[in-house]
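Recall the central idea of this unit: under ordinary conditions, the amino acid sequence of a chain determines the structure it adopts. In this exercise we apply that idea directly, starting from the sequence alone.
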Amino acid sequence: MSLALMPILTPNRFKGKLIVVEGIDGSGKSTQLSLLAQWLRSQGLAVAFSEWNSSPLVRDTTRRGKKKQMFTPTTFSLIHATDFADRQERYIMPMLKAGAIVCADRFAYTAFARDVVRGVSPKWVRNVYRFAIQPNLAFYFRVPLEVALGRILGGRDSIKYYEAGMDLNLSRRIEESFRLFQGRILEEYDAMTQEMGFHVIDATGSIEDQQAQMREVVMQKLSDAIATGQILQDERAYRANTAAAPVL
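Accordingly, the structure predicted from this sequence is:
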């Protein structure tokens, strides 16, 4: 069976809506998602936030494994899948059930791109994430490699080992490894764009222009749910599930 014919993710049957952002490191997606979440909440809507690799269940293990450079491609994939499963069950699903808008910084598509570049079978990794809830909106922030690299180095002193794909032995020079690794991830994202229905944002544009594009798409997609009261107001959703994801 071809990948295109395989069931990818689980339909969202809850009242709430799921918005995700994807892109290589340095694409600016996190900034844009944060701005969008703040704007949605300013409209009186319930907004929850979840980010990749943040579950308390595996956070310490992941940190130790990265520090000691212990991960193989498969173990890296599985620990991220464990993180994702825990966050979906404990945070994402309860807020969707309550009727909130959940904003996720990276989703299963990150695994579909990164894990495949690391040599994991595309069919295998997609099968692992079949439990993931289908987003209502998925934004892909496309950015040239040199722009992404410049942003990363402009914000901190160095590139991280796994961020540069140094575990793949692509190059002994970390910046060159970053270019090769992230370049391959870009190719995977581009190949998924049509299949996954990404809304592509030119991440070289101004912050204001990118945010305006996001808001326009979100309102086109969610206007009916908002107008009919399907999306809860922030205080009601927070009271409905005080143990769920942090409400922005």
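The CA atoms of residues 22 and 203 lie 11 Å apart.
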